[in-house]
Amino acid sequence: MLESFRGGKVARWFKGRSMWLLHFCTGCGAIELPPSMTSRYDLERFGIIPMASPRQADVLLITGYLSVKTLKRVITTYEQMLDPKYVIGFGSCTINGGMYWDSYATINKLDYYLPVDVYISGCMPAPDAIFAAFLELREKIEKGEANGYKLYKIHYERYKANQDKVFKNRGIIEGED
Amino acid sequence: MLFLYNIIIVPIIAILIGLLFLGIARKVTARIHRRYGPPVIQPYFDTLKLLTKEDNITHGVMYMLGPAIGIAGSLLTLFFIPIGKYALFSMHGDLILVLYLGVIGSLGMALGAGDSGNPNAAIGVSRGLSLMLSYEFPLVLAIVGVILKYNTTSISAIIQKQVTSGWWAIFVIPLSALVFDIALQGILGEKPFDIPIAPHEINSGPMVEYGGKYLGMLQIFASLHLFTELALFVDLFLGGGANIITFSLKMLVVFLLAIFINAIMPRFRMDQAFKFYWKWPAILGLISLIFVFI
Ligand code: SF4
């Protein structure tokens, strides 16, 4: 019974109304977060507040380009979070590499390495776009469509292979960097 | 039978009111920051969400027991504090008992956090215990003032004497009330004394490894803790309450004062907090004791 309640409609409704962010900032995207959290836009009215540790958070924001070294930290952080967890990709850098598409140090498509639930396009998305993304994520959660964390478990082999490939190519191997 | 009902109903009311107060605190803080703020029932959403999250980690038995011990300790304290006119257990000397029991909850949380093995949690626990050491001294001075003034150690008797004399203790011994209120700021962990859970320094301290239902239990523990401490203040200095509504209103007034200070203050360092507590409130408390003796 508990299991069915956990995934049920009521629980999903609560989850959509209380999304806790992880304060993990990469790239230039983080600069748009303070304006969306302070008085003019105020993310907190949707029940969205930043949390200090990955154990407490529900939403992982990838705010921009990811260097290979950061990717490793992001993956560790993502795996520390408790289910259900969601990922939002900020800006064109997470979608296709953006203006760093040919850089030797960054990854291009975040979706190869982590399951992304919602993307925000733009280089740099404004607070309005961030709000739109959060409301879309809330809708998805309520409908039960934000299943990235389940996909990560199902297709773990594929994600892991992709992650290993990029770490090996850059000479960063598990355990030493 | 009624007694058994009340053992279940009183904690539920306390949790609901405590969570509502946490919501009011967030809304008021947001308004002071000129933000719109979350809905006042946001803590209910948060707690229910946390309780329905899945848990795929553990850090040992004590880690899981910690929040339970915290809740148990707060419940035990709650049973001895009269709420409105109603006191579940009331006897001679329960004020001193409450002083001891009030520590159990925080100690349970400290035990659980210590088991999580995170260095930030360890720092948070040590800071929390030092903070406890700092505020307990003025707190005890304030309570001794009340005990001497009314010549009894039963909370119900103290309320009774305030009601019959027509003067609340806050007007009779204002200095003790002030000292208790300053100590309350530390007990509730509001700024400038939110040193143990400083999110920007040590990643929310003891809670750093807690997530999911354990964090939900800690949220419930926080609401119970808030309720008991505020109720103790209202009972000792504001003459209790005729029913649960006036009682909660009085608690809200005390709490709002703490929130206003919280919203505009920066944070003390640990040594500053310790020095502060053992200096000004302690001196005020001693002066108040002299007044009581005279
Ligand atoms: S999308 Fe633009 S703003 Fe965002 S990280 Fe990439 S370059 Fe920076």
Describe this structure in words.
The complex is a heterodimer of chains A (177) and B (294). With 177 residues, chain A is an alpha/beta fold. In chain A, 42% of the residues lie in helices and 10% in strands. Chain A is built from eight helices and five strands. A five-stranded parallel beta sheet of chain A has the order 2-1-3-4-5. In chain A, strand 4 (86-90), helix 5 and strand 5 (118-120) form a beta-alpha-beta unit. Chain A is globular and about 45 Å long. Chain B has one domain. Chain B is built from twelve helices and no strands. Chain B is mostly helical. The longest helix of chain B is centred in the middle third of the chain and has 32 residues, at 119-150. Chain A binds chain B through residues 5-6, 11, 14-15, 17-18, 20, 38-39, 42, 44-47, 51-56, 58, 80-84, and chain B through 26, 30, 33-39, 42, 45-46, 48-49, 52-57, 120, 199-200, 203-204, 207-212, 215. Iron/sulfur cluster binds next to helix 5 of chain A.
SSE layout and pairing:
The complex is a heterodimer of chains A (177) and B (294).
Chain A: H1 2-6, H2 9-17, E1 20-22, H3 33-37, E2 49-51, E3 59-62, H4 68-80, E4 86-90, H5 91-95, E5 118-120, H6 127-143, H7 148-154, H8 156-169
Helix pairs in contact in A: 2-6
Chain B: H1 2-32, H2 42-52, H3 61-80, H4 94-115, H5 119-150, H6 155-165, H7 169-172, H8 174-187, H9 199-202, H10 212-237, H11 244-264, H12 270-293
Helix pairs in contact in B: 1-10, 1-11, 2-10, 3-4, 3-10, 4-5, 5-8, 5-12, 8-10, 8-12, 10-11
